[in-house]
Amino acid sequence: MVVAPKQQKTALVTGGSGGIGAEICRHLAAAGYNVVVNYNTNASKAEAVLKSLAAGQHALFQASVVDSQQLAQMAAFVQERFGHLDILVNNSGITKPVPHHDLAGLEDDWIDKIMQVNFRGAFACIRAMLPLLKQGQNPVIVNISSIAGRTGVGSNVAYCASKAAIDSLTRSLGRALAPAVRVVSLSPGWVLGEYAQALPESYLEEQKSKTPLGRIAMADDVAKAVLAIAESFTFSTGCVFPVDGGRPLN
């Protein structure tokens, strides 16, 4: 009996040049995926991420998640280069620290930017990549969310709302795209990435003390969870996976 060769797995990570995105790319590459590292503006960081990946047919693609024409071009690139997509990780996101009581400080432009990138961008990526995902093996969309969407505690009110919208998107599309494509939210608490590292050490220590597991998550914790959702939790869809050290318990 002749066994057909197994199709090479392919993943696309938006915002792949950032701290969390880069670590997700590295874990997927180490697990045998060909990884498309999406970035918007920082080509040098994206190139460094590409060079750090385990051997494979990896690629870079510049596209803004708020530009549907650029996303269509990225989908065409993935189609031509790989022919399918097994994992889409919607990791692109922005925020700006604004105290929740400072309503005037959260300007309209920033509300629009946050919702466009964090929510509309994720939806637009799914829309663009869906035909490719339907050609993949056990395809899954992983939306990087946040416990801010559940707790209402985060860098600003619009950011929290955008992550709640992501979780709602996950539930809606988990139902709508089944059984062809799974859709899951991955919901970290504080992650010691570029944003958190810019905060005062005293504040970070306070966050650790409020987390039952006694530390802030590393990008590695998020990346390992993405891989587990793709490879191990294959009967899960339309749900939110916490990676928060038990933070909501406090």
Labels describing this entry:
disordered N terminus; alpha/beta; seven-stranded parallel sheet; about 45% helix; Rossmann fold
Structure at a glance:
With 250 residues, this protein is an alpha/beta fold. It has helices at 19-30, 43-52, 68-81, 108-133, 148-151, 157-176, 194-197, 201-209, 219-231, and strands at residues 10-13, 34-39, 59-62, 87-90, 140-144, 182-188, 239-243.
3D structure, described in words:
The protein is an alpha/beta fold. The chain has a single domain, classed as NAD(P)-binding Rossmann-like Domain (Rossmann fold, 3-Layer(aba) Sandwich). 45% of the residues lie in helices and 14% in strands. It contains nine helices and seven strands, in the order E-H-E-H-E-H-E-H-E-H-H-E-H-H-H-E. The chain has a seven-stranded parallel sheet, with helices on both faces. Strand 2, helix 2 (43-52) and strand 3 (59-62) form a beta-alpha-beta unit. Helix 1 (19-30) packs across helix 9 (219-231) and helix 4 (108-133) runs parallel beside helix 6 (157-176). It is globular. The termini are far apart.
